[in-house]
Specification:
37 helices, PH-domain like, alpha+beta, PH-like_dom_sf, flat, Serine/threonine-protein phosphatase 4 regulatory subunit 3, 9 strands, ARM-like, about 800 residues, two-stranded antiparallel ribbon, single chain, seven-stranded antiparallel β-sheet, about 55% helix
Length: about 800
Amino acid sequence: MTDTRRRVKVYTLNEDRQWDDRGTGHVSSAYVERLKGMSLLVRAESDGSLLLESKINPNTAYQKQQDTLIVWSEAENYDLALSFQEKAGCDEIWEKICQVQGKDPSVDITQELIDESEEERFDDMSSPGLELPPCELSRLEEVAELVASSLPSPLRREKLALALENEGYIRKLLELFRVCEDLENREGLHHLYDIIKGIFLLNRTALFEVMFSEECIMDVIGCLEFDPSLPQPRRHREFLTTTARFKEVIPISDPELRQKIHQTYRVQYIQDMVLPTPSVFEENMLSTLHSFIFFNKVEIVGMLQDDEKFLTELFAQLTDEATDDDKRHELVNFLKEFCAFSQTLQPQNRDAFFKTLSNMGILPALEVILGMDDVQVRGAATDIFSYLVEYNPSMVREFVMQESQQNDDDILLINLIIEHMICDTDPELGGAVQLMGLLRTLVDPENMLATANKTEKTEFLSFFYKHCMHVLSAPLLANTTEEKPSKDDFQTCQLLALIVELLTFCVEHHTYHIKNYIINKDILRRVLVLTASQHAFLALCALRFMRKIIGLKDEFYNRYIMRNFLFEPVVKAFLNNGSRYNLINSAIIEMFEYVRVEDVKSLTAHIIENYWKALEDVDYVQTFKGLKLRYEQQRERQDNPKLDSMRSILRNHRFRRDARTLEDEEEMWFNTDEEDLEDGEAVVPPSDKMKSDEDLMDPISKFMERKKLKDSEEKEVLTGKASLSGRQSPSFKLSFSSSPKPSLSSPPTASLHPGSPGSPSSPGTGARSSPPTAAVTTKGGLVGLVDYPDDDEEDEDEEDADSKEESPPLSKKSKLSS
């Protein structure tokens, strides 16, 4: 009993669907005389008290989960779980359970497959059905036990359902309920609760139709008030008859429709409020109840949709100025619920539904409602508008473009939406966030249509930037007239953050429309004023906006940024932030790092020339020194255009190989065992080893012979005699070994870009401080870019002497470029 294999925790499921720990102990299985069967016993490890005594019921569904957990549901809707310390202990108890139930221990759910004997099957097929006890007060306990015992077996459930249908048994039970309630027979009422709940779990539409009929549904709800686990009965019927009142905002002439609405509300109430939370094994048993509610809603929507008189009256009263506020409030709430019901429709039915509403004039009606002062009415109208935008944004866009030809900008539907967003009184701006999401959907080119004769994207964006963008950006422009935001309270900052986020979205998706707007209205300068806000989230929004613009690598934007010195507020925000390691610090460094890595030449030069003094002391990241290095290399290329042209010549002719050779080299590289390589050695592709010197030299020498006749300056660059104005010589070197055993040298591509920031040193280069120079060797009239190993020492000595005599001391700029 004390071994760890049998050590378990006992859990029970509470009303909130959370598992409660009942204690730790050791589990065993034994025959219990009182329970008349094999039982699971758990005794506490602390004091030996009995934590659990549960009979292994042949009809109970036990489930094994995750190798160390056994879960089951007792008959009294009481879910239990044993969590084992070791898998071996769980397997041992699982075998005992399966042994009692006659199941194979390899299954995970003991009642998943009903394994009935041949005799039982013969009896089931031959017997006409289940025989129910007479529906009498004295037999209620027997009926309750019969229902409970039938639930685990699908075949018995089927028979029970047929018996209940054929004998009209439910109506008889409800008559008994009224008798028990009159007699205040609490025991009988508790049995009826168990019976009715069991009938729900049979999951039969035919039974639901009887139970949810007009004459039966309130008695069914009454039965479910008397839960045996509660000290006092619930008062569901009282709530439904007195508190919940049905309002007909427009009189419904069809009695069938009215009855269907009542029924749906009550069944929904039963599902949500009356029935207890289903246990793990009951969740799928109420699928038919969900379907019953679903199809009722579909039917209600269809019946209302077909009633043209009803919808015409609804929209007429909505837009009528004579309608009082309370009535309009009810009408809007009805329309909102009507649209919510439509979400249950199939796609083709939903299409028909929204087309009907569109033909009835829902968008003009919403425009009128959104112009009203009542906050609740406007909130409901916003919800309705969101349904329309999510369903078909193109329909909304078409409407607003048509109305722009007749109305002023102030009363356009989209401008009303923007104004409500700006004027949201909620401190958390819940409504503004919702409206901003709708605006984003409307201006998103991804869901815009393109037809043969017109493009919705072009037309709508032209309309939006002409008629609406000035309304959206008005709070931003009003609040950024100086170097700091004029209003910096939390609510204003939240609103500005929403506006900047939408502008950022436009930068990403709207290309030239937003570009023209930003440059003409100087929007980026205004947005960058927000980096001085005391609220970090707003400053980060502004930085994201600029980062998105820089990320486009558009020279129009870059010239605009440089012309107006728009990095200045960013650098100020960086310096004001000090050495604090936070999001603002990281966002700004990442922006400069992007300019460096992507080598945006114009911005690199602008930043170094204007802000280097402010940034040169920042050494905890190498970003700014890397930018300076990029700038120096750029200047070097500008001062020596011949050097740049030589690089391109050498790239094009010296290292050109066919694709097949590259593939062979890659194959060789990946097939090489890392352990075969010594530290500091690089692999030489076999293609290089196999080619003879003459084969490789031939195209190079021919090319150089053609270039011999060029001006003498270029020759000086090639021979390395010129000192390149005191700057570092380009690191080009190609060596061939004539010895039989090939020497390992670094791949030629490793030194293509001298001095590139952050590039790792090539393997095998050693610790030499002077860079290798390009040498021209002439043998037998051949001119080639070859540096023979035998001449290495002489060449280096000459170069050292030359550099001492001719080269002036390196300037600060030269040091940086090295």
